[in-house]
């Protein structure tokens, strides 16, 4: 939905190629090494002048997304307006293609998109570093949605360094019937690992080498996620989905972030199409999406004077 004076930003979903989770910190967050990878599944966030802050949510993945001030995109607009000392009098329109509570950072993507769109609409001209700082206040995954590509996140995931990566990867995403709550999955991981001495999370050398080489076979073998046992403990159907991906010819598969979406790597576009069909036929998921990565972070696609600003 585009109207006069509006700005639309496209924001990608993410898959975590590696998610190494350390011990819980005193602030309740876990120390991470998160290798983020932006994929072509996306949301479109449109911000337009209005008499008050309003939220409208549409699109094939709109179910379960709040259309009020608790929406992360609305919180982003309120945060930026507060920083600028102005009213947040805009209509925020979300077209959701990223599943909610799916482990693909859909809410974070919308927050990043709303920040960039409102910045452009209001002509605020924030520096990239300022936008990244506001993004980190909104959530650990929000800075990456601005940056995109493939990047390593440290700390609680918000301190980003671009990864040396080449090539283009074909993904098949298996979407689950029910979402999973991110805090609940971290809490389940703590419960499952109670009493164990946890090593400090470190970037996987073989994953980094696979990315540098642009080698999908090596990348598929290196996918790892410390939250996977916790996600599968809360959603036991994930075992069958992962097995169906393997049986359907995936090079490798992993639960994305806190789940329950499963991400499978395919050798090429043709293999990905076949795998998508096999996963759908398996009856182990609600829906299947094809995607490729890496793609750019949040970028203005309509309206606004500074297209591509987020990259
Ligand atoms: C699972 C991931 O998606 C992987 O990228 C992220 O770690 C989650 O990022 P997010 O949804 O942006 O998370 P936030 O909104 O910052 O935090 C939500 C909740 O997740 C848990 N959380 C999040 C990040 C982190 N490093 N440790 C945590 O324990 C905390 O319970 C926190 O209260
Ligand atoms: N714009 C939004 N899109 C989706 N969910 C939102 C949004 N704003 C708030 N929410 C709420 O946040 C919850 C988590 O949503 P989100 O889609 O970000 O989860 P996620 O993809 O699992 O997150 P992550 O991968 O960052 O852990 C939803 O269940 C919903 O109630």
Automatic annotation (TrEMBL):
Record: residues binding ATP: 99-109
**UniProt entry tagged with the keyword Nucleotide-binding:** yes
User: Which keywords appear in this protein's UniProt record, sorted alphabetically?
Assistant: ATP-binding, Isoprene biosynthesis, Kinase, Nucleotide-binding, Transferase
Q: Does the keyword ATP-binding apply?
A: yes
Q: Name one Pfam family in it.
A: GHMP_kinases_N
Residue span(s) of domain GHMP kinase C-terminal: 207-279
Could you name the active-site residues?
14, 141
The record ties this protein, via NCBIfam families, to: ispE (TIGR00154), PRK03188.1 (NF002870)
Q: What does this protein do?
A: Catalyzes the phosphorylation of the position 2 hydroxy group of 4-diphosphocytidyl-2C-methyl-D-erythritol.
- The protein depicted here goes by the name 4-diphosphocytidyl-2-C-methyl-D-erythritol kinase
